Amino acid sequence: MKVARLYSFGDIRIEEMPVPEVGPGDALVRTRASGICSGDVMPWYIEKKAPLVLGHEPAGDIAEVGRDVSSFRRGDRVFVHHHAPCLKCPFCLRGDHVQCSTWKTSRIVPGGVSEYILVPAVNLQNDTLKLDPGMSYEDGTLIEPAACVVKGLRRARMVRGDTVLIIGMGVMGMLNLLIAKAYGAGSVICADRVPFRLNRAAELGADAVIDVSKEPLREGLARATGGSMAGTVIVGPNSAEAMQQGIDCVRPGGSVLFFTPAKPGEGLQLDPNHLYFNDLSLISSYSCGPTDTAEAFRLIAGRVVTAQQVVTHRFPIQRTAEAFRLTAAAGESLKSLIVFEP
Questions:
Q1: Does residue 268 sit in the same domain as residue 212?
Q2: pLDDT tens digits for 220-261?
Q3: What is the DSSP-derived secondary structure letter of residue 215?
Q4: pTM, two decimal places
Q5: CA-to-CA distance for 130 and 17, rounded, in angstroms?
């Protein structure tokens, strides 16, 4: 089978490897589509894992199941989460699935951009979902990224009627926009410097957009809100500078969500009394767990989020490097998918 293996940020090769063998509790999935994650195009983040088969947003068909598997069968159309928790440890019992040691060590084999994927028993049992009949494979690839948004908004405690500022309107910014609106945000204001992305945000329901190449973010937000600023700020770029801008844009009593990590070595200088006397909450949100994927599944099944809204480019596996470069360029694109022949 063909796989796309990354050796360095500029070195992605299409290689052949054997189809994995299925154990008693496992399943083999024939991949039909797999997303390129915007997090995977941060060089410092992905290269420390190299060499690796790219991809962790797959959807496909069950091709084979192990002898002990009863909840899935050949032909089922599925989304597979690349990590799955034990559901029993103290972290899992309080809903912190991503801190579970099983979650951290579980994986799909060899990765999402592969013609076939082995789904180990824990992933199959604890975070694999059958796609609804009306849900396409491309829709299925959005379950994991949408689940990251679900978790982030929950942790940020966004309330109905809130004014939400989203900094960075790549695909994750768009998913934050769509889901925040679905959750009852009163106004969603989107900031970026790429006209293509600002225009798409407006098409998808943004109440206002700020082109930060033309005006400072804080000034643009003050203009858009009449000076009241934002109750929830979602910071998308992997930048401490963007995080500081988010803090500067939140109103008293509000929350700033760090949706992406900063680059290694970057730091923030914070005035603790500014946070304290303004009742500000700084919140991080890393990845997602099975409760989040279940909610994302519900949103996608309800057509709150669809591939038609955010998928802009599709590539065969042979052009994975091109898809990777396009995503890294952060220009006139949103979601890129690797699509496999039926």
A1: yes
A2: 999 999 999 999 999 999 999 999 999 999 999 999 999 999
A3: S
A4: 0.97
A5: 27
